[in-house]
Automatic annotation (TrEMBL):
One MF annotation (Gene Ontology) recorded for this entry: ATP binding
Organism: Marininema halotolerans
Pfam families: ABC_tran
Keyword set, alphabetical order: ATP-binding, Nucleotide-binding, Transport
Entry protein name: NitT/TauT family transport system ATP-binding protein
Xref: SMART domains: AAA
CDD domains in the cross-refs: ABC_NrtD_SsuB_transporters
Keyword tRNA processing in record: no
Alphabetical list of InterPro entries matching this protein: AAA+_ATPase, ABC_transporter-like_ATP-bd, ABC_transporter-like_CS, ABC_transporter_ATP-bind, P-loop_NTPase
Domain ABC transporter: start-end pairs: 6-237
Domain of life: Bacteria
C-alpha cells in the first residue's frame, strides 16, 4: 500500500477563458498520508475547491504534478468518490435506485456491493427509506443518502466539498458523528473542504490552512490526539478544541 494517498508537487492552476485568465492556485505542495482525514480551510476564493477538482481529475494543473497512490492523476479515478453540498439525488428514483445508479456508473452493480450499500443504509439509520423518493425525505436524510451513495462504491479516497454546509447545526453534528463512525475501521483517506472551522477540527487529523489570491498553503496544523480521540460532539467542549479554533480563526482573518 502506498504511504501517501496523495501528493501535490508544485501544483498551480490558472483558469483560462476567451476573455480572461484567473490564477486560482500558486504553486502548492503537500502530502496526504493514506488513511488520514485532512481538511482544507481558508477564505473564500483561495482555491480550496480547485484542489478537489484537480484531485478528482476533472481539471488539469497548469504546472506541477498530482499523484494518487503514487500514480499521476490524468483522469477521474474509480478509486475516488466525490460528495458535494448539493445531494444531487434524482427525484424520480427511489433511495435504493439512486444508490444502485451510483454503483452502475462504476460497473459495481453486483450483489456484494448492493448488500454493502444496504448495510451502510442501516449504519446511517436509513433502512426504512429504501423505497421512498427523495422528496419524501428531510434535508438531513437526503444528505445521508448522498453519503451512502458516495461510500457505497467503496472509494479509497473520499472528496467532501462542504457536504454538510446546507444543514442546520443539529443535523450537521449528527452527520459528522455518523461519518466518523462509518470511517472508523475502514482504510479510507478523506479530504474535506469546509468553511466551518469547528467541523474541520472535529473531523480532521490534519488541517491545511490556505489563503491569498492566488491561493497558497499558509500552515499545516496537526490536530492534537485528545481532540481526535473524542467524538465530534464531545471534542467541542474541550479547552484544546477552543484554543485551536481561536488559533485557526486568527490565521484565517490575518490578511
Ligand atoms: N471554472 C472556473 N473558471 C474560471 N475561474 C474559476 C473557475 N473555478 C474557480 N475559479 C476562480 O478560481 C478562484 C478559486 O476558486 P475556488 O472555487 O477554488 O475557491 P474556494 O476557496 O473553494 O472558494 P469558496 O470557499 O468561496 O468556495 C476564484 O477566484 C474563482 O473565481
Amino acid at each position: 500500500m502506498a504511504t501517501n494517498a496523495l501528493e501535490a508537487i508544485d501544483v498551480s492552476k490558472t483558469y483560462l477563458s476567451r476573455q480572461d485568465q484567473v490564477t486560482a492556485l500558486a504553486p502548492i505542495s503537500f502530502r496526504i498520508p493514506s488513511g488520514s482525514f485532512v481538511s482544507f480551510v481558508g477564505a473564500s476564493g483561495c482555491g480550496k475547491s480547485t484542489i478537489l477538482s484537480l484531485v478528482a481529475g476533472l481539471i488539469s494543473p497548469t504546472s506541477g504534478e498530482l499523484r494518487l497512490f503514487d500514480e499521476p492523476i490524468k483522469r477521474p479515478s474509480p478509486r475516488i468518490s466525490y460528495m458535494l453540498q448539493q445531494d444531487c439525488l434524482l427525484d424520480w428514483r427511489t433511495v435504493s435506485e439512486n444508490i444502485t445508479l451510483g454503483l452502475s456508473f462504476r460497473g459495481q452493480n453486483n450483489t456484494k456491493s448492493a448488500s454493502h450499500a444496504r448495510y451502510l443504509l442501516g449504519e446511517l439509520g436509513l433502512s426504512h427509506t429504501l423505497n421512498q423518493y427523495p422528496s419524501q425525505l428531510s434535508g438531513g436524510m437526503r444528505q445521508r443518502v448522498a453519503l451512502v451513495r458516495t461510500l457505497a462504491v467503496q472509494p479509497e479516497l473520499l472528496l467532501l466539498d462542504e457536504p454538510f454546509s446546507a444543514l442546520d447545526y443539529q443535523n450537521k453534528l449528527h452527520l459528522e458523528e455518523l461519518l466518523v463512525n462509518v470511517l472508523q475501521g475502514r482504510k479510507m483517506t478523506a479530504l474535506l473542504v469546509t468553511h466551518d472551522l469547528e467541523e474541520a477540527i472535529a473531523l480532521s487529523d490534519t488541517i491545511l490552512v490556505m489563503g491569498g489570491r492566488p491561493g497558497v498553503l499558509r500552515r499545516i496544523i496537526e490536530v492534537p490526539g485528545e481532540i481526535r480521540k473524542a467524538s465530534p460532539l464531545a471534542a467541542r467542549s474541550q479547552p484544546a478544541f477552543r484554543s485551536l479554533f481561536n488559533e485557526l480563526w486568527k490565521e484565517i482573518e490575518t490578511p
